[in-house]
Amino acid sequence: LVILAICLMLTGCKKQETEDKGIKVSARAVSLFQMPKLEKISVPANQNLLTGWANLSEKAIGKRPVAVMVNNVKAAFPQYGVAQADIIFELPVEGDLTRLMAMYADYTKVPDICAIRSCRYYYPAIAKGFDAFYVHWGIDKNVESYVKGIQPDKYDGLSNDGGLFGRDSARRKAGYSLEHTGYFKGTNFASVVEGSGDRVSLKDTKKETAFQFADYGTLITPTDGACNTVAIRFGACNSKFTYNTETNTYLKSMNGHKHIDGKTGEQLSFTNVFVLETSISVKDSVGHKNLNWQGSSSSKGYYISNGAVQRIRWSQNSESSYLKFYDESGNELEINRGKTYIAYTYTGRTTVE
Predict the structure, then answer these.
(1) Torsion sign over Cα 314, 349, 262, 136
(2) How many of the other CB atoms lie within 10 Å of CB of 56?
(3) What is the pLDDT of residues 70-103, one digit of tens each?
């Protein structure tokens, strides 16, 4: 190319006379030295920070997510409003039952959700890391001072904060006990929170995606082999995920039955499944748990996506920090865009096949 350019320049010089005896380079010769422009993949303004998808309403751009406590016992099934969640967390509570925390990135699109349940201290600690509003119905009295100390912006059904809570009369007539009929009026949340004086905009430190997502159009395959099923044995509750090759998602079952949203009829499905092993113990006569939600550089777990599994490390430095995932070499983990399920559970109780 250099030789060709020189030849073209010499040819151009011979063809024209110049008064200043300077060298003029033809446009074609210049074009030979031009580098191709690298096109940047633009990030959509309405990128959902929890999933990486471009599906936020315009009003929700730069705004805080909403985390809602959901009852997860057989007597409360089917729940509703959970299929729309962007992330679902599942952690053990007393009796080795589990409780869900459903998180929604778009505060203007939160559905009505039932059955709402009470707070355990590790849930608001995790929610605060995402700068989320925290929604619950009641609280373990022994942890009230801790929760007050970390100062989450929270809404409590026990005091019907904002008039956002009620009892589902249809469920009551159907024979559900009272404790399984409490619901959160998520469809009213945007109007209530905007008039509450609570901060609606995300902190500056929370305006990037919650996880390190792969590029648009890229599908990552975890590195430790194929994974068609994941079984998590919490104790009194057991969750299982089965890979659907048509949708590249994992379908959730609970105690041997499909985990269904009672209003949409959808089986809960996730692009990403995380199992985080941690220390869990009983702390009182009621059976409340001590649970290490922070992890450390040595905390182990699994990342499951796209029909494969990978061993990982995980940690959350403080209540104000994002939950982070790492590969076994200590590099931050890149994950697929989509909905995510995250379990915190006992060591050695997960089967991956």
Answers:
(1) negative
(2) 23
(3) 999 999 999 999 999 999 999 999 999 999 999 9
